[in-house]
Amino acid sequence: MPRNAKKPRRLVADGRVYMWTMRHSHCADDGGRSVDCRQTLTLSAQPAGTGGRLRIVFVDGPGRFVPGGAPLGSGDVGLTRGKSLNLHEPGAVRALLEVALSRGWQPEERRVLEVDGWALLEEAGGRAGDDTRIAGQ
Length: 137
Hints:
This protein is an alpha+beta fold.
């Protein structure tokens, strides 16, 4: 039976348990058209109520891609001439978590922190190993 894409997944890093989800969303412009395509990865420290949430947001823009249909996979985010990650892969999620922790995110703080995923991508791509691809090669 396939995994339910909306059900949170479990990740253990440095002895701490996190639950993570990934969502795709859009905003609507004045004409009702979908714009501002974004992919949001949310990690929640466990057990529930013992820590905060980290939201890593990838917003589509020049030189960047987020999933929006074929030919991209549903979890692919990346730079058109650089690193990319598949946010369905636990190794990619762990790499982003490690970079956020190294840059000061404190999971025990009971607040939501939203960060720009593009600021983490290059370093996370270097940590993710096989979960990272060089686009265009």
